[in-house]
Design brief:
The chain has a single domain, classed as 7 Propeller (Methylamine Dehydrogenase, Chain H). It contains one helix and 31 strands. The strands form eight sheets. It has a five-stranded antiparallel β-sheet with strand order 1-30-29-28-27, with no helix packed on it. The protein has a four-stranded antiparallel β-sheet with strand order 4-3-2-31, with no helix packed on it. A four-stranded antiparallel β-sheet has the order 5-6-7-8. It is an all-beta fold. It is globular, with a radius of gyration of 20 Å. The longest helix is centred in the N-terminal third of the chain and has 4 residues.
């Protein structure tokens, strides 16, 4: 079924050309997933790339403005020996073409550039590992390290029988990388050698047993630095104050823990997903999956049947790192694996994986609250799992 779109009448448009990049897993009856380039605000398809394997799962636009380059990952859980790191280049038709490929460790799900974009670190969920690559000035990648984990210290949950490294995040100093590991109930900490781009391990940050740390963000208030981690299995967001001991590594002091459902109890089976800081650094947003809280208007204007919706939660961090609940808002569909804000934070685009839709909501940058849905792309050709705004 072809992609269809809904645009709410009266939406103001920007003079700057804006697009959305959307990766998605292949449908059950499909062979390859897709990377879509959508025009905004119409969300009409500019280009469809189906050359990134069966499970495209992550897009990184760090080098897009400078080199027109997007880094992509094929998680390849259906063909684990063929997981891939892809280089995609902006094409003349406004889409993305594959220009480079490397076979990597299985189950890659996240990337983080570091050391002035001269290297990139990859978190491998399926492979229980971390891999790093150097990045040449022409965008070419060369392998540096493979760091693998096993079953030792695994969590008590059914999905925690082994390591599942889920995210790679750089600290504000640029000297450390952290990697939440859902399977081991730990966040791995590494320092970066600026001369070689090699990583050296330091002591892990341990989570509560069964919490399942998934994704993380750093946030700063004055001279204080905080690490805020969203946990998939117990649906918590935990804030830690970060310090930098003379002997090396990072030290953490827990200052707050909140439910990803704010002021209500997390429903059974819920699974927290993404976490991000707003562009003005005043708010933290996270997604909740597999926990319908409301029904919302169908994105198809010809269909009056409402659709179930998961949620996006917003918190406002205090200068002491406490998390003040702001809002629990609809995501527009089921299983919001990923979301992102536009440059000024006035829009939030949500990849609702099980609804085959991308839904864009207005956001009040002053209050941090999500408002009305302004645009939708539905009946997508793959299960959307990552969505990013890019300015042309």
């Amino acid at each position: 079924m072809s992609l269809r779109t809904l645009l709410v009448a009266g939406l103001a448009t920007s003079a700057t050309a804006v697009k959305l990049l959307v990766s998605g897993y292949a449908k059950v009856d499909g062979t390859n997933g897709t990377v879509l380039t959508l025009d905004y605000p119409s969300l009409k398809t500019v280009s469809t790339n189906d050359k990134m394997g069966p499970q495209p799962t992550w897009l990184d636009t760090t080098l897009y403005k400078e080199k027109g380059l997007v880094l992509g990952l094929d998680e390849a859980w259906s063909t684990p020996d063929k997981a891939g790191l892809y280089a995609l280049k902006k094409s003349s038709n406004g889409g993305l073409d594959v220009t480079g490929f490397a076979t990597i460790l299985g189950g890659p799900v996240s990337t983080q550039f570091y050391n002035k974009n001269s290297a990139v670190a990859i978190a491998h969920y399926g492979g229980g590992a971390i891999s790093t690559f150097s990045v040449a000035k022409d965008g070419a990648f060369a392998p540096l390290q493979n760091i693998t984990y096993g079953t030792e210290g695994h969590g008590p949950g059914a999905g925690q029988t082994t390591s599942h490294v889920h995210h790679s995040v750089i600290d504000p100093t640029g000297r450390f990388l952290v990697f939440p590991d859902l399977g081991l109930d730990a966040t791995h900490v590494f320092c970066i050698d600026p001369a070689t781009n090699k990583l050296t391990a330091h002591a892990d940050l341990k989570a509560v047993a069964g919490a399942g740390p998934r994704h993380a963000v750093f946030w700063q208030s004055g001279r204080k630095t905080f690490l805020i981690i969203v946990h998939e299995l117990n649906n918590s967001i935990v804030s830690y104050e970060v310090s930098y001991p003379r002997e090396g590594g990072l030290a953490f002091k827990e200052v707050d823990s909140q439910s990803t459902f704010g002021n209500i109890t997390a429903p059974a089976g819920a699974a927290a997903g993404e976490i991000q800081v707003s562009p003005d650094r005043k708010f933290v947003l996270a997604s909740n999956r597999n926990a319908t809280l409301s029904n919302v208007a169908n994105p198809d204007p010809s269909n009056s049947t409402q659709v179930p919706s998961d949620s996006i939660v917003t918190f406002k961090p205090t200068p002491q790192g406490k998390l003040e609940f702001v809002q629990l808002a609809p995501s527009g569909g089921k299983f919001p694996r990923h979301f992102s804000t536009n440059k000024d934070g006035s829009l939030v685009a949500v990849a609702n994986q099980q609804s085959f839709s991308v839904d864009v909501y207005a956001r009040d940058v002053r209050t941090g609250m999500l408002g009305k849905k302004v645009s939708s792309a539905f009946d997508l050709p793959s299960n959307p799992n990552n969505v990013l705004f890019v300015d042309e």
